[in-house]
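User: Teach me something about this protein's shape.
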Amino acid sequence: MVPEILQVVIVGLMIFIPLCVIYKKAGFNPLWAVLVFVPGIGLFLIFLQLALQPWPGVKSNSRQ
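Assistant: First, the predicted structure itself:
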Protein backbone atom coordinates (compact mmCIF):
# COMPACT_ATOMS: atom_id res chain seq x y z
CA MET A 1 0.00 0.00 0.00
CA VAL A 2 2.18 2.84 1.31
CA PRO A 3 5.92 2.61 0.67
CA GLU A 4 8.04 2.06 3.78
CA ILE A 5 10.00 5.28 3.36
CA LEU A 6 6.75 7.27 3.42
CA GLN A 7 5.74 5.51 6.63
CA VAL A 8 9.09 6.41 8.19
CA VAL A 9 8.68 10.06 7.18
CA ILE A 10 5.13 10.21 8.57
CA VAL A 11 6.14 8.69 11.92
CA GLY A 12 9.19 10.96 12.05
CA LEU A 13 7.02 14.03 11.53
CA MET A 14 4.61 12.81 14.21
CA ILE A 15 7.54 12.93 16.64
CA PHE A 16 9.30 15.98 15.15
CA ILE A 17 6.42 18.47 15.38
CA PRO A 18 5.64 17.94 19.10
CA LEU A 19 9.36 18.04 19.86
CA CYS A 20 9.61 21.43 18.16
CA VAL A 21 6.89 22.70 20.48
CA ILE A 22 8.63 21.21 23.55
CA TYR A 23 11.96 22.76 22.59
CA LYS A 24 10.34 26.15 21.99
CA LYS A 25 8.58 26.12 25.38
CA ALA A 26 11.77 24.97 27.11
CA GLY A 27 13.70 27.89 25.64
CA PHE A 28 15.89 25.88 23.27
CA ASN A 29 16.19 26.25 19.52
CA PRO A 30 13.42 24.07 17.99
CA LEU A 31 15.76 22.89 15.23
CA TRP A 32 17.33 20.49 17.75
CA ALA A 33 14.30 18.29 17.05
CA VAL A 34 15.94 17.34 13.73
CA LEU A 35 17.98 14.85 15.79
CA VAL A 36 14.93 12.58 15.70
CA PHE A 37 15.87 11.67 12.13
CA VAL A 38 19.33 10.35 13.15
CA PRO A 39 18.99 6.58 12.90
CA GLY A 40 19.43 4.59 16.07
CA ILE A 41 20.46 7.20 18.62
CA GLY A 42 18.60 10.38 17.62
CA LEU A 43 15.68 10.04 20.03
CA PHE A 44 18.07 8.97 22.79
CA LEU A 45 20.16 12.12 22.24
CA ILE A 46 17.04 14.28 22.44
CA PHE A 47 15.99 12.71 25.74
CA LEU A 48 19.50 13.14 27.15
CA GLN A 49 19.61 16.79 26.12
CA LEU A 50 16.21 17.60 27.60
CA ALA A 51 16.95 15.69 30.80
CA LEU A 52 20.48 16.83 31.58
CA GLN A 53 20.86 20.41 30.34
CA PRO A 54 19.56 23.35 32.35
CA TRP A 55 16.55 24.83 30.62
CA PRO A 56 17.10 28.46 29.63
CA GLY A 57 13.39 29.22 29.88
CA VAL A 58 13.23 28.25 33.56
CA LYS A 59 14.48 30.67 36.21
CA SER A 60 16.46 29.06 39.01
CA ASN A 61 15.46 29.57 42.63
CA SER A 62 18.90 30.02 44.13
CA ARG A 63 19.16 31.50 47.61
CA GLN A 64 22.00 33.93 48.03
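Now, about its shape. The mean pLDDT is 85. Residues 32 and 49 are 9 Å apart (CA to CA). If you'd like, I can walk through any region in more detail.
User: That's plenty for now, thanks!
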